[in-house]
Automatic annotation (TrEMBL):
Family classification: Belongs to the peptidase M1 family.
The UniProt record lists the keyword Membrane: no
Protein name: Unannotated protein
Organism (species): freshwater metagenome
Record bears the keyword Aminoacyl-tRNA synthetase: no
PANTHER family in UniProt: AMINOPEPTIDASE N, PROTEASE M1 ZINC METALLOPROTEASE
GO molecular function, one term: zinc ion binding
Matching Gene3D superfamilies: Neutral Protease Domain 2, tricorn interacting facor f3 domain
A GO biological process held by the record: proteolysis
Aminopeptidase N-like N-terminal domain residues: 53-219
């Protein structure tokens, strides 16, 4: 994510406070790691393998008639289970082909199958009909199903997917996605992954998109509108042809530069971090005035005037750091934002602008009472601090301090191995610390404690 100046109303999303997450046979607890910033999101009793999302959308009324089929694996027998969902009226729930009961509890859809689901594979299909809501975040920004002049765009970091996608809405549960998006004549529909095909649907069209590489729900994107569609391609460093799809709202404009610079940015990132991790790229530019760009997987979202080159570098670097290598717990978001911000610094240094060292020095010269220094990047407790300056700027400074400690060669080796060893996986900060010590052969706890865990300005750097 890249923020333009953010609003700071304190609309702490009370609905996120969670209840019990999963009904387990015998009441035993499941030893799956819990996400701790949004404890109401995510469900430990099962792991999703695939989402098959069909949405028939009417742009003029914002009505979505949707069916979401989830294929999942139960970790244990389930008498009932929860999906994260705070969207429109549910019209039916089916588990393994049998009608199931469901109730709404806050942001949860509680599903009780007609028979206990045994451990192992099962499927659940949820249908709903109505207007998906927007979600207001703790920092006052808007996500979820966001209305535009000519349709809607679903952008979902951190928890907005619950507004339109019944799901296990936690970063640690990655799955494959298929989207079948139907829109009236004159409209088009975009999502993550590759365009499999289009087919007539009434007087309009169904667009089928498939995201084969695993994806966390917060990285999903769905857009309906009167887009200008541009297709091109780029060849990755390992010789793959990557199709690029650009969906651009003609009302917004100014996205041509972002489109044209993308192949160069991908090449720049590949040289530093290794092969592009996904099978396609592009972007979505829409008139959603949310105040941020977002690294939605393979196809970032840009708001009006939000696609300057530095932002394109940031969102592209996220494809490695954040999207392929993904945090497990939101407290570790600096792993995504620190790397993406540092990639911006490397780009500017390589293009004759400020070097990473100059970025670091400019920030380090700030007073000890500056907001940059507290809370330390992994120490925040308020969801409103999720996209704060300590996460981004101090996160990037952490990487620069590390680079100065272990040297540029080991640092770049670390970045590449981080992207390769944990590709498509979920990670925690300690995974990076261990790998950094392994690559450099140095003891680094002091440095990571100084930069990531101690509030206040780190001394002696
Ligand atoms: Zn970001």
């Amino acid at each position: 994510m890249t923020s333009t100046p953010r609003r700071t109303t304190s609309a702490l999303a009370a609905g996120l406070a969670g209840s019990l997450l999963v009904g387990l046979l015998g009441g035993s607890s499941v030893a799956a790691p819990r996400e701790t910033l949004f404890p109401g999101q995510g469900n430990a009793g099962y792991q999703v393998r695939a989402y098959d999302v069909s949405i028939d959308y009417q742009p003029t009324t914002n009505r979505a008639i949707a069916t979401v089929r989830i294929r999942a694996v139960a970790r244990t027998a389930l008498r009932s289970f929860h999906l994260d969902f705070d969207g429109a009226r549910v019209t039916s729930v089916v588990v393994d082909g049998q009608p199931a009961r469901s109730t709404r509890e806050g942001t949860e859809l509680v599903v009780t199958p007609s028979a206990v689901v045994d451990a192992g594979r099962f499927s659940v299909t949820v249908s709903y009909d109505g207007r998906p809501p927007e979600v207001v975040d703790a920092d006052g920004s808007t996500e979820g199903w966001v209305r535009t002049t000519d349709g809607a765009i679903a952008i979902n970091e951190p928890v907005g997917a619950m507004s339109w996608l019944p799901s296990n809405n936690t970063p640690g549960d990655k799955a494959r996605f298929t989207y079948r998006l139907s829109a009236p004549a004159g409209y088009s529909a975009v999502a993550n992954g590759e365009l499999v095909g289009t087919a007539p649907h009434g007087t309009g069209t169904t667009w089928t998109w498939r995201q084969e590489e695993p994806m966390s729900t917060f990285l999903a994107v769905v857009g309906f509108g009167r887009y200008d569609v541009v297709e091109s391609s780029v060849t990755s460093v390992d010789g793959r042809r990557l199709p690029l799809w650009f969906f651009e709202d003609s009302l917004v404009g100014a996205s041509e530069r972002a489109r044209e610079v993308l192949p160069e940015v991908i090449a720049f990132c590949e040289e530093l971090f290794g092969p592009y991790p996904f099978s396609s790229g592009g972007h979505v530019v829409d008139d959603a005035y949310v105040g941020y760009a977002l690294e939605t997987q393979g196809r970032p979202f840009y708001p009006p005037d939000g696609a300057d080159t530095s932002t394109v570098v940031h969102e592209t670097a996220h494809q490695w750091f954040g999207n392929s290598v993904t945090l497990t717990d939101w407290h570790d978001i600096w792993l995504a934002e620190g790397f993406a911000t540092y990639a911006e610094w490397m780009w500017s240094g390589a293009r004759g602008g400020r070097t990473p060292q100059e970025h670091f020095e400019a920030l380090y010269s700030r007073d000890a009472d500056d907001d940059l220094w507290s809370p330390a990047p992994v120490r925040f407790t308020d969801p409103a601090d999720l996209f704060g300056e300590p996460v981004y700027a101090r996160g990037a400074m952490t990487l620069h301090a590390l680079r100065r400690e272990i040297g540029t060669r080991d640092f770049l080796d670390l970045a590449r191995r981080w992207a390769a060893d944990f590709a498509y996986d979920n990670v925690r900060t300690r995974d990076l610390e261990r790998l950094a010590e392994k690559v450099s052969g140095e003891q680094l706890d002091e440095l990571f404690d100084d930069w990531l865990r101690r509030d206040g300005k780190p001394r002696g750097y």
